[in-house]
Structure formats: structure tokens, C-alpha cells
Amino acid sequence: SAMSLSEAEVQSARGAWEKIYVDAEDNGTTVLVRMFTEHPDTKSYFTHFKGMDSAEEMKQSDQVKGHGKKVFSAINDMVQHLDNSEAFLGIVTPLGKKHATQLKIDPKNFRIICDIILQLMEEKFGGDCKASFEKVTNEICTHLNNIYKEEGW
């Protein structure tokens, strides 16, 4: 299997993820707004968000909310398939290819977004929650980076 997580790790990662996924739209929005605020260059990929400078304005944006929700549901699909590497790769691969070839998103942004998710988990639910999800974010980023390499990045 391509996954380096034990069954116990998968279970605790799912438990951690569930806590933050309950409010997918709110938390997804928070994550994106943080990314755009702390790493303003990431806004350049999103034509709708370019002109937005204030975090308040971003929080109200339907596009930001919509994309936050999209990011969270993609991660949710991955989390549901952590114990099945074929299914997991079936989700990660097209996503990586699309971001590499069509959207041309720098792969370092996946790490940024994962780190912000971990930071939010720690703030809301403590260090144990963050620690149990850290391996999952590493797994996701590793696979995405591999897909990028295959696409010639």
C-alpha cells in the first residue's frame, strides 16, 4: 500500500478531522482567508479574490466560502479512503493533475494550506488533535508532489 498510516492512526486522524469538518464552510473559509492574508501571492491564482484586501471582505465572499467548502470536501473524501490506497489515489491524482496542468498552482501552496488547517485544529481542539492529523497532511502533500513531478514540475 502507498499509505504509511497504521489502522490506529487512520482512526485517530478521522476523529480529528470530523471535529473540524462539522463546520466545513466556516472552517474552510477561515483557512482560505488566513492563507490569502498571510501569503498574499496565493490570491493571484483566484481572479475573483485579487481585489480583496480585507479579511472581512474575503469572509463575506461567496467565492471564498465556496472554494473553502470545496477544499474541505476534497480532503474529506481523502480521509474516508485513508485505508484504501487505490481509492485515495483515485481522488488525489485527478486533483493534482488539474492543479498542475490547468490551474498551474505552485505545489508549495498545498503545504501552506495543510499547515493552516493543522494550526486551526490546534487552536480549536488542542495539540493531540493536530498531531493525529499531521501524518495525513504529509501523506496528501507527498502524493500531490509526486503527481506534480510526473507532470514535469
From TrEMBL:
It catalyses: 2 superoxide + 2 H(+) = H2O2 + O2; Fe(II)-heme b-[protein] + nitric oxide + O2 = Fe(III)-heme b-[protein] + nitrate; H2O2 + AH2 = A + 2 H2O; Fe(III)-heme b-[protein] + nitric oxide + H2O = Fe(II)-heme b-[protein] + nitrite + 2 H(+). Transmembrane segments: none annotated. The keyword Heme applies. It comes from the Eukaryota. GO terms for molecular function: heme binding; iron ion binding; oxygen binding; oxygen carrier activity; superoxide dismutase activity. Its EC number is 1.15.1.1. Gene3D superfamilies: Globins. InterPro entries: Globin (IPR000971), Globin-like_sf (IPR009050), Globin/Proto (IPR012292), Globin_lamprey/hagfish (IPR013314). It is an enzyme of class 1 (oxidoreductase). Keywords: Heme, Iron, Metal-binding, Oxygen transport, Transport. Belongs to the globin family. This is superoxide dismutase.
